[in-house]
Amino acid sequence: MSMLVKACKVPFIHVGNQVVSELGPIVQFVKAKGHSLSDGLDEVQKAEMKAYMELVNNMLLTAELYLQWCDDVTVEEITHPRYGSPYPWPLNRILSYQKQWEIRRKMKAIGWAGKSLEQVLEDVDQCCQALSQRLGTQPYFFNKHPTELDALVFGHLFTILTTQLTSDELCEKVKNYSNLIAFCRRIEQQYFEGRLTLARP
Amino acid sequence: MYFSAVFQAYAKFTGAPLTVNAINKSWKAPKGEVPVLISEDTVISQPAKILNFLRKQKYNADYELTAKQGADTLAYIALLEEKLLPALLHTFWVEAENYCSVTKPWFASRIRFPLSLYLPGRMSREALNRILLTRGGPPLYSLTEVEAQIYRDAKECLNLLSKRLGTSQFFFGNTPSTLDAFVFGFLAPLYKVCFPRVQLQEHLKQLPNLCRFCDDILSFYFRLGVSGHSPAGQDSVDANLQKLTQLVNKESNLIEKIRLSLFLCRWTTTSVRALSILLES
């Protein structure tokens, strides 16, 4: 399994002698096997779904990486210990510093290195506001049935809501939008039978 | 380059009294980067902040949009940045034939010697660096695999934009908005520049509604007709005067107080100027 992890990014699925990693390729692979959540959408809805998925990747994912690897307090207290925990010293420190350097290079390339934490949290708020407005009072983003977008948004929001960091600022940004909280709770109850732990107010 | 075209389009859509000042040394811009917006004592350099400032000054292209349409705008802009921008950077700055025969001489001609020998190369390396850092990594190991993937993604992005636009004049009805400015800013250089290696441009030209979208904005808002010349004569003068009079009557104090000037790196303005040259050819 460790060789597979080296060969591709997580998450990945291992089917027979095929290994498929990351959400996009996994969705395509599953679709090729005859299962798709977005077959019922028209072309404009599919375009919209993909655009919102890129919004999550562009803003929410980048903000999560920023907080984990560019906020000094979080890096020292949470990220370095967690990232290096499977490895013995000094490998734990070497690998975590290497990963930090890699992420910070990426942040610099996309223009996020100069942002302050407040600006990043503002971006998260803007993204959550857009998702909340798109979701409205519907159960899922495209009305009655979940799609890849629902899975992606749930994954990110649930992680933000349940991961303990040095401060609650990121979590509080998401909690400002009650329909997003209800969305996460709905999916947790319906598809995970409440086995995941989303804190109740 | 793309954001400069976006802001110019946005200013045209909203009637913001923008003065474009081209410079050929970006570090001499007020904040060391371009584009940058200066209004009296206020200096703003980040794209999102420039647009927010213009909106606060009541030059808001999204005034009539619903909340959902505003959210859609954000999502589609993210789609452009994630899926289209890497391939645009590659087409202009990394693809060797395009870079050597078009981009490098074009930009170098607008920069003073000896920086003309160094800066285009640096921009090319930065573009490649960005592509590899954001799109490289397992399971894509070689540059060829990364290039193939970014062009697949860019073509899919163009298809999605075409489906979303459909037969409408603009993305949200009959008046242009921020999203139209962004799509125009990203597509127009790709559409109009004559490259030797043209795979993405050829794909765009197979989407007639996106080509029509770019042509309409160029001809109506940038006053470039099919011949590539601005329609001369009294008609355009009268139209401009009428527009200015309306603005003065509406916001007389505001017009007097605000002097908006957009500093653009000299080489970024060549993108829009080149559109006019290429329309002639």
From TrEMBL, chain A:
Q: Kindly state which keywords UniProt assigns to this record, in alphabetical order.
A: Acetylation, Membrane, Mitochondrion, Mitochondrion outer membrane, Protein transport, Transport
Offer one example of a GO biological process linked to this entry: mitochondrion organization
Domain Mitochondrial outer membrane transport complex Sam37/metaxin N-terminal: start-end pairs:
6-99
CDD domains (UniProt xref)? GST_C_Metaxin2
GO CC terms, sorted: SAM complex
- Pfam families for the chain: GST_C_6, Tom37
Domain of life of the native organism: Eukaryota
Give the UniProt subcellular location, in the record's own words.
Mitochondrion outer membrane
What's its job? Involved in transport of proteins into the mitochondrion.
UniProt record similarity statement: Belongs to the metaxin family.
This protein is called Metaxin-2
